[in-house]
Amino acid sequence: MGFREKYARLGERYNILEKPLDRFFCPLRQKAISFVKGRTLEIGVGVGKTLPYYNPNVKLHAVDAVPEMVKIAEKKARELGLNARFYIMDAEKLEFPSESFDTVISSFVFCTVPNPEKAMKEIYRVLKPGGRAIFLEHTKSECELLNWLFLKPLDLVLGWLIEDNTLRETHHLVRGYFEVECEESYYKGIVRLIVARKAEG
Question: Does residue 160 or residue 114 have the better pLDDT?
């Protein structure tokens, strides 16, 4: 069973599963969204955890590979009065023209994407030159002891449950495609907020 089927089966219960982490992650989601400007694409919107933090004037396009998750997010966006459109779409194959967004954001997505390199290439492609890419992601810690004692056991559980890989080095992958403006590390690098730009010209 792949990640789509696992997330589809969770549906609304995903909110319950992640509830204990919300007090840690939601302030970071809010901070990530504060960097959003212009025509925006959110990759892997899930059940819409980021949606309450968007300015209603932002022209938001949001994608997720799991139809059940998209339905939940669409409902939340309507309740919030957001100017948003939703699509069932893989991060590795975005069906948008090249250079069509001012901002692309992902929030705890690259730990689940089957092919991170391909997804990063697609983000680069659809972002306008000078546009901003924002990543709030689970990453491998800078503390090896923490990786062995906490992340590796957690990786086994989350991998079985939702195909989640908490040991990816998305921060290194970002640097291969974008100019990093700032990178903030939280909880010894278990979570990182990266704000980057696509080079102009």
Answer: 114
Render pLDDT for 163-181 as a digit per residue (tens, 0 to 9).
Answer: 556 667 899 999 999 999 9
Q: Which range has the worst mean pLDDT, 23-27, 28-32, 116-120, 121-125?
A: 23-27
Domain that holds residue 158: 3-197
* Domains identified in the chain, total number: 1
Q: Half-sphere exposure of 95 toward its Cβ, with a 13 Å CA cutoff?
A: 8
Q: In 3D, which of 137, 143, 154, 141 has the Cα closest to residue 195? A: 137
Model confidence, pTM: 0.82
- Residue 174: give its domain's CATH number: 3.40.50.150
CA–CA separation, 87 and 89 (whole Å): 6
Distance, in Å, from the CA atom of 82 to the CA atom of 42, rounded to the nearest integer, reads 14
